[in-house]
């Protein structure tokens, strides 16, 4: 038996096609496109690649991109002033501050200055609270992308045992809440969990977001489970038999033999994060225009 590989690039392309149609309809109604402002502080190479990818994706679907780059030594006041200006700019529907920010700045504090109605990353206290209370709001992109992947793969979420490994505010906590909203039975496991392998092996849906290359082994996986790999670990060179130096948190080849369905790295969750960011930008623009 070999698992079905869930093609994140393919599903992301479907989401982007839907977003493209929504953008065209928005332009018809309002005579202007939704806009997404990205803020990148400093010269971290990986962050620059991600932000570049987000801006390129905007252009592809017709969203207007505002690409703000600040030097690594930018002051808190400069970043705050930029966020406040973008909050007040009617052409800017969504704002994201790429994380991490340089050490003299506080990424959580800065993110929180974003108007919740423009919080397309879903990372402000207000957005987290709306999610926790089941109120409408912008949902964080990576967890929302995972739900879309599970749906696309035909995985039943309701009633399933879901185990999320990782408890970050960026992913693990919102992921657990979205699964709960869909009536899964949810466990959040983490670095202090006693017998992680045993907890993982109960999962019908196993989601790993720990940032440790290939930590989840094949014998942790329940036969037939849906396995979602949120890890992005960059190795010095591609492992034997692989073409990419990016590996996830799951030992892919081992898992492939046991799981029912699995996302690859690259080409799994990553492209969905960007697709959901575009989707959130259109939703934000519609809300700000008084629609829905
Ligand atoms: N405010 C904020 N929002 C974020 O959403 C955010 C962030 N900060 N900081 C960093 C992480 C990381 N992240 C990724 C997005 C796309 C891919 C992606 O498209 N990955 C491709 C491969 C890309 C490559 O080759 O490096 C894939 O998995 O197939 C990966 C990672 C968004 N993040």
UniProtKB/TrEMBL annotation:
Q: Pathway it belongs to?
A: One-carbon metabolism; tetrahydrofolate interconversion
Pfam families, per database record = THF_DHG_CYH, THF_DHG_CYH_C
Per UniProt, the keywords (alphabetical) are: Amino-acid biosynthesis, Histidine biosynthesis, Hydrolase, Methionine biosynthesis, Multifunctional enzyme, NADP, One-carbon metabolism, Oxidoreductase, Purine biosynthesis
Gene Ontology MF terms: methenyltetrahydrofolate cyclohydrolase activity; methylenetetrahydrofolate dehydrogenase (NADP+) activity
Q: Name one GO cellular component term.
A: cytosol
Biological process terms from the Gene Ontology for this record are: L-histidine biosynthetic process; methionine biosynthetic process; purine nucleotide biosynthetic process; tetrahydrofolate interconversion
Give the Gene3D superfamilies listed for this entry.
Leucine Dehydrogenase, chain A, domain 1 (3.40.50.10860), NAD(P)-binding Rossmann-like Domain (3.40.50.720)
The catalysed reaction is:
(6R)-5,10-methylene-5,6,7,8-tetrahydrofolate + NADP(+) = (6R)-5,10-methenyltetrahydrofolate + NADPH; (6R)-5,10-methenyltetrahydrofolate + H2O = (6R)-10-formyltetrahydrofolate + H(+)
Ranges for domain Tetrahydrofolate dehydrogenase/cyclohydrolase catalytic come to 6-121
What is the superkingdom listed in this entry's lineage? Answer: Bacteria
- Start and end residues of each Tetrahydrofolate dehydrogenase/cyclohydrolase NAD(P)-binding domain: 140-288
Positions with a binding annotation for NADP(+): 166-168, 232
Q: Which family does it belong to?
A: Belongs to the tetrahydrofolate dehydrogenase/cyclohydrolase family.
Q: Which NCBIfam families match?
A: PRK14186.1 (NF010783), PRK14188.1 (NF010785)
Q: Which HAMAP family match?
A: THF_DHG_CYH
- What name has this protein been given in UniProt? Bifunctional protein FolD
